[in-house]
Design goal:
By secondary structure, this protein is mainly alpha-helical. The protein is built from two helices and no strands.
Length: 56
C-alpha cells in the first residue's frame, strides 16, 4: 500500500515539473510565432512549383 502512495507522489511531482516547464516556455515566448502560419499558405504553391522545376 505504501508503494502506491510513493508512485502517486512521484507521478504528481513529475507532472508538476512538466507543467512548470510548459508554463516557463509559454511565458518566455517559445510559441509566439503568429506571422509564419499566415504567410506559409501564400507561398506554398510557389515552393511546390520550384521543387518540381528543379527536378526536371
Amino acid at each position: 500500500m505504501s508503494v502506491i502512495f510513493l508512485l502517486i507522489g512521484i507521478s504528481i511531482t513529475v507532472a508538476l515539473i512538466f507543467l512548470g516547464i510548459f508554463i516557463w516556455s509559454v511565458r518566455s515566448g517559445q510559441y509566439d510565432d503568429s506571422y509564419t502560419p499566415s504567410v506559409r499558405m501564400l507561398f506554398d504553391d510557389e515552393l511546390k512549383k520550384q521543387s518540381t522545376t528543379e527536378i526536371k
